[in-house]
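Subject: design request, 294 residues
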C-alpha cells in the first residue's frame, strides 16, 4: 500500500483531524495514494535542491513586517508525529522536527507527507544517513525538512556550505554594500546570471539572488526576520559559518533553504514558490525545529 499519507488540517492550521488520515504501509519509495509532486532531478544530491518549482498561482504580496509565528505548542503537530514515525535508529539519536505547519499558496487544507531515508549510496560526501520529510499539496510541493548524520563535523560543515552552489547561488566579491534594513549592510554583486546580496550574521551566511534585479525586498524580509527572531545556533561561526540561508527569487515566487550543522548533524528546511510566504515559512520551520522524542 502507499506510504504517502494525507492529512486534513483544521481552520487556522492549529489542529489536525485524525479522522482524515488515510493510513497505509509500504516501502518509502511507493507513492500511490497521492499524485507525485514535482521534484528536482537532483533531489538527493546534497539535500539542497536547485530552484525549479513553478507555482500554479501567484504567491501572496510581500509583507516585510510583522512576520507571524504561531504560538508554540507543548507537543508536535499530529502530522509531524506521523511523518516521524519511521525515523531509522541511526538518525533517531539526533532527529529534529518542526512544531510548525506550513501552508500551500493554493489555500488547500490537505497536506500529504512523504518520508524518505537517504543513505551513503546517494553520493553525498560523508553522509551516514538522512531522514527527510516532504510535505505537499498535490501537485505542488509545500516544504521539506530533514535531519542527517555525517561521518564527522568537517563533512557536515561542507554539506551545509554546498547549499549555496546547489541553489545556483554564490558569494559576491567584497565591494559595494547596500543597506537592507535592520542595521544590516549587504555586499552586492553578480555571480553568473544572479544579482546577489550577501551578509554574515553570527554563525549564519545569508545569500539572496535574483536573475532579474537586485533582490532588495527579499533581503529586507530576511534581515527583518533575523532582527526579530532567534534561529538555531550552528556549531561553527566566523568565516566558516555553520549556517546558511539561501534564497532564490523567481517571477513566480521564492525558493528558500535553511541549513545548519551541529557537530556531525545537519538540519535543513526548504520552501518553494508554491509555499505560502515561502521565505518566512522556511525561517519559521527552522526556528521551530526541536529534538524529536526518542
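Subject: RE: design request

Done. Sequence follows.
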Amino acid at each position: 500500500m502507499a506510504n504517502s499519507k494525507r492529512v486534513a488540517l483544521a481552520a487556522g492550521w492549529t489542529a489536525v483531524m485524525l479522522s482524515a488520515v488515510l493510513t497505509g504501509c509500504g516501502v518509502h519509495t511507493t507513492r500511490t495514494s497521492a499524485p507525485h509532486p514535482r521534484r528536482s532531478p537532483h533531489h538527493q544530491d546534497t539535500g539542497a535542491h536547485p530552484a525549479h518549482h513553478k507555482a500554479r498561482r501567484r504567491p501572496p504580496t510581500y509583507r516585510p513586517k510583522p512576520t507571524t509565528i504561531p504560538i508554540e505548542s507543548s507537543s508536535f503537530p499530529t502530522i509531524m508525529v506521523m511523518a516521524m514515525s519511521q525515523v531509522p535508529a541511526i538518525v533517531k539519536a539526533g532527529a529534529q522536527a518542526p512544531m510548525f505547519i506550513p501552508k500551500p499558496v493554493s489555500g488547500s487544507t490537505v497536506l500529504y507527507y512523504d518520508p524518505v531515508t537517504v543513505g551513503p549510496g546517494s553520493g553525498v560526501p560523508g553522509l551516514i544517513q538522512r531522514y527527510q520529510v516532504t510535505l505537499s499539496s498535490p501537485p505542488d510541493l509545500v516544504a521539506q525538512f530533514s535531519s542527517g548524520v555525517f561521518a564527522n563535523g568537517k563533512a557536515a560543515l561542507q554539506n551545509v556550505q554546498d547549499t549555496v552552489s546547489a541553489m545556483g547561488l554564490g558569494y559576491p566579491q567584497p565591494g559595494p554594500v547596500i543597506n537592507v534594513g535592520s542595521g544590516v549592510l549587504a555586499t552586492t554583486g553578480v555571480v553568473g546570471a544572479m544579482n546577489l546580496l550577501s551578509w554574515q550574521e553570527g554563525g549564519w551566511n545569508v545569500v539572496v539572488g535574483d536573475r532579474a534585479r537586485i533582490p532588495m525586498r527579499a533581503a529586507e524580509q530576511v534581515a527583518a526576520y533575523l532582527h526579530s527572531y532567534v534561529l538555531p545556533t550552528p556549531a561553527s561561526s566566523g568565516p566558516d559559518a555553520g549556517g546558511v540561508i539561501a534564497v532564490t527569487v523567481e517571477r513566480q515566487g521564492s525558493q528558500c533553504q535553511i541549513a545548519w550543522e551541529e557537530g556531525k548533524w545537519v538540519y535543513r528546511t526548504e520552501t518553494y514558490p508554491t509555499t505560502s510566504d515561502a521565505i518566512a515559512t522556511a525561517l519559521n520551520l527552522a526556528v521551530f525545529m526541536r529534538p524529536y522524542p526518542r
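DSSP finds five helices and 14 strands in the chain.
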